[in-house]
Amino acid sequence: MSDVYLNGKFVGTTENALGFTEKLREERRKQAIPPSVSIYHDEESDEVQIESIKGRTLRPLIVVKNGRAVLTERHIQQLEKKEITWSDLVKQGAIEYLDASEEENAYIAFREQDITPEHTHLEVSPLAMLGLAASLVPYGNFNQSTRLNAGSKNQKQALGFYAANYPVRMDMDVNILHYPQKPIVNSIMHDVSKYEKHPVGQNIVVAIMSYKGYNMEDAIIINQGSIDRGFGRSSYFRPAIAEELRYPGGLVDEVGIPDKDVKGYKSERDYRYLEGDGIVYPEAVVDEGDVIIGKTSPPRFLSSMDEYSLTTSIRRESSVSLKHGEKGVIDFVLLTENEEGNKLIQVRVRDQRVPEIGDKFTSRHGQKGVVGLIVPQADMPFSASGIVPDIIFSPHGIPSRMTISHLIELLGGKVGALSGRYIDGTTFDAEPEERLRKDLLDMGFNENGTETLYNGLTGEQYKAKIFIGNMYYLKLKHMVANKIHSRARGPIQLLTRQPTEGRAKEGGLRLGEMEKDTFVAHGASLLLKERFDSDRSVIPICEESGNIAVRDILRNKSYCPIAGENVTINDIEMPYAFKLILDEFKSLCIYPKIELEEKY
Predict the structure, then answer these.
(1) From 1.10.10.10, 3.90.1070.20, 3.30.1330.60, 3.40.50.300, which CATH number describes the 2-124 domain?
(2) Which sequence positions are flagged as catalytic?
(3) Could you give phi then psi for residue 102, rounded to 5 degrees?
(4) Residue 513, exposed/middle/buried by CB under 10 A (0-12, 13-18, 19+)?
(5) What is the pTM of this model?
(6) Which of 105, 108, 83 is nearest to 95 (CA)?
(7) Are 123 and 61 in contact (CB under 8 A)?
(8) Taking Cα atoms as reference points, which of 80, 151, 247 lies closest to residue 473?
(9) Which of 135, 411, 412, 525 has its CA 20 to 30 A from that of 119?
């Protein structure tokens, strides 16, 4: 007897578990039970598990009976003529959906010619086991699984042409690549997903070699000439929003150039780009701190008397200005209303981004790297036919990562560029490497993709043959301009008096315990002291009670709240955070007594 479970709950027993599961599967194929129900016979524990709950990933497979696929040539002809649809195939039992548990009982053939009498299912296409992004990776079956994952992840972060109506959209920080291209080496999925309508990369020449050590550890070297011709150029868009809010008592915000008597008025220079309506004009070149939408608000706290007079006293400044580290050109100004019918102003700032040292690039195989050096075209290595690589990629990224598809794409891209055709690199079903090698040989190049390169500085021939070819490269959204951060003195937190946190708030760079150890090891004691006094403060301490004394500025005297006035009070240097914890101890009714020693 075998136990039967429905969604993990015991519902009964069956004498013939195999027959029972087969019967249920037949019923499912006849549409007697929903196609999303999964039946799984666990032979080890002799249990039948029936699952119908949400959240299971199901994948379609062609049903195989008696060593033959149920999906016939006739079905395919009917599909081509649009006489039947996909759902009809499911209804006819030619295709069924399996989840991970039922797949344990299935024996799936990769291709039709592989089917044996033991097989239960056939893949619709081997490519169907991959998701959208992973199936865009050419020659993916030559890749290590981890790198295929990385490659699919990287494509999601690439800059491209995300929507054709981007000029009229107000999206939060987005990027547009100026010259996106369709890849030379592509897969079926590129056609299915209409990839040429929203491409995310560019076809470039890549040489695998070292150059002055500037492409160590995944870094890449870029040709300045390629950047001048538009490689990797993009625009960064970011909106700023202001609303005219309504407050209780009939008070409202006002968009306009603030008057000089407004509380918190900046300076005339800050408002120089504002027009009469208090909004910046399009194509103004703005920098951090510049006001782009002028606005004033009623005071935050009204006294009980002020509430009754609508001619309230001074208004406060609440303009929208560019944050720390932001700059650009005003691209688009939109005036509209929000849900409540209040005035809403949106201003989009555009910033052109040219590739610079530290920007991140990647191929479609998880071979990501940052720009380590930008070399003038005259100094780049060149081939006998005058080809100069756009990117120099380090050879050390290949052996340990085993991204063979990276190398095959270079070969395929070279063949495609020379013969003027697209190369099919669909995973499991690509144009074979042997054919690429033969085509390359027929065009008068080395079949292994290598060429003799010459040193751009000296003109000497390199002794080693260099592997060089064409490849689809992507620029990722991680750019130095968005991440660069430094600070001297700046804003501090109100409570702890320590520097604020984060780049947006112009925060400090935290020096932790481990960083401290490196300074200790170096013996850099003065630097260590300087690093650790971001919240240094001088606190008067009473010698008698060991308590924090009070400094009365009006009487120019210090006294202790416990011991009185006629005691010795010393000014002691300590971190403000320490003074804070002493206050917290006091709130717990603990007496933190500070005992002072003589300073020798």
Answers:
(1) 3.90.1070.20
(2) 218
(3) -70, -25
(4) exposed
(5) 0.85
(6) 108
(7) yes
(8) 151
(9) 135
Tokens encoding 77: 């002809």
Look-up of token digits 């970011």: 238
**Secondary-structure class of domain 235-353 per CATH:** mainly beta
φ, ψ dihedrals at 516, nearest 5°: -60, -40
Retrieve residue 252's tokens.
Answer: 């409202």
Angle between helices 404-419 and 433-442 (to 10 degrees): 40
CB 321 within 8 A of CB 295: no
If we measure between CA atoms, which residue out of 393, 361, 366 comes closest to residue 159? Answer: 361
Fold of 140-233+360-475: 2.40.270
Residue ranges matching CATH 2.40.270.10 in the chain: 140-233+360-475
**Pick from 120, 117, 101, 129: nearest CA to 26:** 120
298 contacts 247 by C-beta, under 8 angstroms: yes
Architecture of domain 485-531: Alpha-Beta Complex (3.90)
C-alpha dihedral (432, 437, 442, 447), degrees to nearest 10:
180
- Which amino acid would we find at residue 357? I
Asked if 418 and 449 touch (Cβ cutoff 8 Å), the reply is no
* Pick from 33, 107, 22: nearest CA to 64: 107
For residue 495, the tally of other CB atoms under 10 A from its CB is 9
Residues 195, 186: contact at Cβ < 8 Å?
yes
CA 79-82-86 angle, 5° bins = 55
Nearest to 220 by CA among 578, 476, 501, 455: 476
**C-beta of residue 286 within 8 angstroms of C-beta of residue 328:** yes
Residues with Cβ within 8 Å of residue 228, at least 6 apart in sequence: none
Q: Does domain 536-587 have CATH number 3.90.1800.10?
A: yes
pLDDT per residue of the chain (600 residues) written in tens, 0 to 9: 889 999 989 999 988 889 999 999 999 998 899 989 999 998 888 899 999 999 998 989 999 988 888 888 899 999 899 889 998 888 888 999 999 999 988 999 988 898 999 999 999 988 888 889 999 999 999 999 999 999 999 999 999 999 999 999 999 989 999 999 999 999 999 999 999 999 999 999 999 999 999 999 999 999 999 999 999 999 999 999 999 998 887 888 999 999 988 888 989 899 999 999 999 999 999 998 899 999 999 987 765 555 555 555 688 999 999 988 889 999 999 999 999 889 999 999 999 999 999 999 999 999 999 999 999 999 999 999 999 999 999 999 999 999 999 999 999 999 999 999 999 999 999 999 999 999 999 999 999 999 999 999 999 999 999 999 999 999 999 999 999 988 888 899 999 999 998 888 888 888 889 999 999 999 999 999 888 888 999 999 999 999 999 999 998 888 999 988 888 999 999 999 999 999 999 999 999 999 999 877
CATH 2.40.50.150 placement within the chain: 235-353
CB 251 within 8 A of CB 312: yes
Residue with tokens 């040709």: 223
Report yes or no: 334 and 346 within 8 Å, Cβ to Cβ: yes
What CA–CA distances, in Å, run from 457 to 64, 212, 379, 393, 558?
A: 64, 11, 5, 19, 73
422 SS3 class = coil
* 3-state class (DSSP) for residue 240: strand
